[in-house]
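Practice problem 4.
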């Protein structure tokens, strides 16, 4: 959501920032799970319950956020709703260039054929990319780096 609602100039920063905080959360979870902190028999329920706090905050606050402007324009075709969401997210100002970019993306997506998983696997042009993704994902899962 954060990457999608960000202005184009800040989109990369917003996506990398969320990845940073995801990794930071994993590190804090590992540290707080040590026996000396919350990893003992009496405190482990607190450690497990602490995961629910961010989820609860998101559950309560997310209904007050506007829909994503690209979603409103590309999927629902609601240009006025898109403009309203942009003004609510980015403030007053001239945002026609961003709306035009979303319209260009919509036109590009209209000409793009969506492949099923089976079609993707059969397509010769994507085979090496698919092998690379599978190998990298399996390596990350087997080495344990995602647990840290």
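Answer key:
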């Amino acid at each position: 959501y954060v990457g999608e609602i960000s202005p184009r100039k800040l989109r990369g920063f917003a996506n990398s920032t969320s990845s940073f905080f995801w990794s930071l959360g994993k590190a804090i979870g590992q540290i707080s799970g040590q026996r000396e902190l919350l990893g003992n028999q009496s405190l482990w329920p607190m450690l497990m319950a602490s995961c629910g706090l961010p989820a609860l905050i998101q559950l309560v606050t997310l209904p007050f956020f506007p829909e994503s402007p690209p979603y409103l324009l590309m999927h629902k075709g609601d240009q006025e709703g898109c403009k309203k969401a942009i003004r609510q997210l980015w403030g007053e100002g001239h945002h026609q260039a961003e709306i035009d970019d979303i319209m260009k993306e919509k036109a590009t997506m209209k000409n793009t054929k969506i492949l099923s998983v089976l079609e993707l696997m059969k397509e010769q042009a994507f085979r090496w990319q698919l092998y690379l993704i599978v190998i990298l994902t399996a390596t990350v899962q087997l080495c344990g780096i995602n647990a840290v």
